[in-house]
Design a protein that fits this description.
Length: about 220
């Protein structure tokens, strides 16, 4: 598996990762969503470097220019609800892409353990397509693997890219073991998780920070 860790590069993108983590800046939900969107834009640019291009003649008012353009727009998938701003950032760059939406969540059992439950998938045809799956937090990696495998079982996906703002080492290992052909793009990788599988230091609950505390 190819892993791209944005924190290992020197760029303004790391400023926005720092703001995502900052508990004071997090109080502004609009700013939090905007920073996730910006991170999505940075990842879209980095991913675009790995995609296939073709030459296209473009007619200008003064002549013809031969340009390199994407051979195929990717499909942009996300896990509701936290992934929506990150997906929007990807869509700002890959602005002709189709989108896929998946509902998956942790269902807590009486003993405190949890299982991943997936209820809903809405997607265009993914046969032969490049799929970019976005979710802000890659904690255990179970949700991501389950959703990707569900789509892989349904379609013949040509390429799979996974985008996360913050990942845990455990989540990265789980994805690597179960989706070895995927390319993983992360903003940073943290070493620890709590007993409830929240990444430490992480940034908290991305869905709640973006859209309000759920009941």
């Amino acid at each position: 598996m190819t892993i791209f860790d944005l924190s290992k590069t020197k760029s303004i993108a790391n400023t926005f990762i720092a703001e995502l983590r900052d508990e004071n800046i997090q109080k502004d939900a609009m700013r939090f969503r905007k920073n996730l969107e910006r991170i999505g834009e940075f990842f879209a640019y980095e991913i675009s470097k790995s995609l296939h291009y073709i030459q296209k003649d473009v007619t200008t008012p003064l002549g013809v220019s031969t340009c390199e353009v994407l051979a195929q727009q990717p499909v942009l998938a996300t896990i509701l609800r936290a992934g929506l701003p990150l997906q929007q950032g990807l869509l700002n760059i890959f602005d002709q892409s189709g989108c896929c939406f998946i509902s998956a969540f942790r269902k807590t059992e009486k003993n405190g353990d949890f299982i991943i439950q997936m209820d809903y998938v809405s997607t265009p045809d993914l046969d032969g397509r490049i799929l970019i799956m976005a979710d802000p937090m890659l904690a255990t990696g179970q949700s991501m693997v389950m959703c990707c495998k569900e789509l892989i079982n349904r379609y013949k996906i040509a390429e799979l890219h996974i985008v996360a703002a913050i990942a845990s080492t455990e989540g990265v290992a789980h994805v690597r073991a179960n989706l070895p052909k995927a390319k993983l793009w992360v903003g940073a990788i943290d070493e620890e998780m709590t007993s409830k599988s929240y990444i430490v230091p992480g940034l908290g609950d991305a869905g709640d920070l973006a859209y309000g505390t759920k009941v």
